[in-house]
Specification:
The protein has 302 residues and is of the alpha/beta class. The protein is 36% helix and 23% strand. The model has no long low-confidence stretch (mean pLDDT 95).
């Protein structure tokens, strides 16, 4: 059975198996003269990534770029391990996230606060040598050869240190978490709004910017390649509705834990067939907490 799935010319996705779920978390391998790996998955899947490279007949020495969209562990947890295994690869990361790849101690503390009892599922993050990390802010272009070029797109909102990557030949947009989670076989489009730095207005501006690129493929980390570009508009509307609903619940219930419990009870029946407990409760609470922090910081609702 093949580990990777071809989604476009010379572009492959690997299912990382995060949380034991099929087609929930993925990373992409672009088999150009200078190979790029977009996202890394969690730290404990290194062997699976290396097996995927072997399957695609890619030498580890030929990996030129490791490109996590942001430093949340499901996107960047494997960075240090993968960089060590691919000695010529340069790690491309937003300038605000890059220091956390070099010294991950504070990031790991923040993740533990955000996910609570779910933390063991997230693995760890091995430091990446500073000289291997290239900080970016958006606008940079990396030439992979054979006409493949990856442009860095600043994409705050989900997190201030998030970028998306736009491959110009395929017109493929590696969306990270900027366009939400999209698994049409499992509850469809879902928001991802974790603490500590979700920002609605920035997220909406990012979605407008991504739409203006006129991509032909949306390459979701969660999960897969989709040609329905209207998902960007759908997600913008979903975020606005989600924030409004949580704001209403906060004004009605006042207590943060009561607000979280309200949404756990509301969302669990819709999602329980697709996401296992206790992970489901943890994910819902985390996403609600991200909005509650946003409401406190930017709308004065506490």
């Amino acid at each position: 059975m093949m580990l990777t799935q071809r989604v476009a010319e010379n572009l492959y996705i690997l299912d990382t198996g995060m949380f034991g779920l099929d087609r929930y978390d993925g990373l992409y391998i672009l088999k150009a003269p200078r190979v790029a790996i977009i996202e890394t998955g969690l730290s404990h899947i290194l062997d699976k990534v290396l097996a995927a490279l072997d399957e695609l007949k890619i030498r580890r020495e030929d990996v030129a770029y490791i490109m996590p969209t942001h430093v949340h562990l499901d996107h960047a947890g494997g960075t240090g391990h993968l960089a060590e295994a691919c000695p010529n690869a340069q790690v491309i990361a937003h300038e605000q996230g890059a220091p956390h790849l070099i010294d991950p101690a504070k990031l790991l503390e923040s993740v533990q606060r955000a996910v609570g009892p779910m933390f063991p599922f997230y693995g760890t993050l091995k430091p990446t040598p500073k000289e291997r990390v290239l900080p970016v802010r958006g606008g940079e272009v990396f030439n992979l050869g054979d006409g493949y070029e990856i442009e860095v797109i600043a994409a705050p909102g989900h997190a201030p240190h998030q970028v998306c990557f736009f491959e110009r030949k395929l017109r493929g947009l590696f969306s990270g978490d900027a366009a939400g989670i999209y698994r049409p076989w499992a509850a469809g489009l879902l928001p991802t709004t974790p603490p500590p730095a979700f920002h609605l207005e920035q997220a909406l501006e990012t979605l407008a910017h991504l739409k203006a690129l006129q991509p032909k493929l949306l390459l979701y980390t969660h999960w897969g390649a989709h040609a329905d570009i209207s998902l960007l508009d759908q997600y913008a509307q979903m975020l606005q509705t989600w924030v409004a609903e949580i704001e209403h619940a906060k004004k009605t219930l006042q207590d943060d834990q009561a607000v979280k419990e309200h949404f756990v009870q509301r969302e669990t029946p819709l999602l329980k067939d697709h996401y296992p407990e206790p992970l489901l409760r943890g994910e819902i609470e985390m996403n609600v907490q991200g909005i509650l922090l946003y409401l406190k910081r930017f709308r004065g609702i506490s």
